[in-house]
Amino acid sequence: MSTTLLQRCPEGGREFDPYFVPDDWARLQYGRLLWKNTRNRGRLLAHWSDPRHPYSERFLTRYRPLVERLLAAEEADNERLDAELRSEGHSLRTIMREIPPVFGDFY
Which of 48, 46, 40 lies closest to 72 in space, CA to CA? Predict the structure, then answer.
């Protein structure tokens, strides 16, 4: 039987975020799983960039490079990435929350 993310990491993202929200952590974990596959990555980018997506403008004008950087990073790099993002005025938590959701019939 395989272990779940919460069993492997019972503290989840608490080390980065005192206001830890499991849904945000799940968005990062599933986003990274999809991001690893080139086809899925292209599909996500097309979906998030589509004018019908309610967050497309925000994603394209402000957060795309940071979201891509976060999704491309390995879980083991979270602490280092959080420190880098903080030095740039962001944090792992804030960028994690900027990963756009996937929904609608145009995905």
Answer: 40
pLDDT in tens, 60-97: 999 999 999 999 999 999 999 999 999 999 999 899 99
pLDDT at 2: 53
For the chain, how many residues are written?
107
Are the beta carbons of 100 and 20 closer than 8 angstroms? no
CA distances for 21 relative to 37, 62, 63, 91, angstroms: 26, 23, 20, 14
pTM for this model (two decimals): 0.80
**DSSP codes joined into one string, 12-64:** TTTTT-TT--HHHHHHHHHHHHHHTSHHHHHHHHHHHHSTTSTTHHHIIIIIH
CA–CA distance, 107 with 88 (Å, rounded to integer): 32
Q: Could you give the C-alpha distances from 70 to 3, 37, 90, 91, 104, in angstroms and in order? A: 24, 15, 12, 10, 24
